[in-house]
Amino acid sequence: MAWITLVEADVVSRLSSPETVALKSAALATGQADPLAEIVSQVVQEVRGYVAANRANQLGAGETIPDRLKSAALALIRWRLVNRLPVKGLLTDERRRELEDAMTLLRDVAAGRFAIDAPATLTDEVESATAPSLTARTRTFTRDDEDGL
Prior knowledge:
Helices cover 43% and strands 3% of the residues. It is mostly helical. The chain has one domain (3-111).
């Protein structure tokens, strides 16, 4: 399996034609562009965050995600796109379950319970995490200070 870049065609394949039209034109503020690109980018970064949460995983270069997580990413994207619309009838129980399953899968990736393939090209991003720092305690009392107890 490879690491992939999500494109608009991937997202549109998960939507019906009327949904696609509504998402590109409805619920936009004056001067606001099609929100699809921004939502895709946000979800890709979120998926990459879950992947990076497990130290055993390596990130691919660019805005790529493991092919095994494509379905989960598309479920998140579709949910966020549809959630923008004033028509809440599109937020069906089936789609809600799909979202929950996607989040469970991403948590499993972070916990190391779901394996992903190593990318062919590694990222040059530096993942930084704080590590605990331990120092020896300074003795307040010595054996001489405890004389008489």
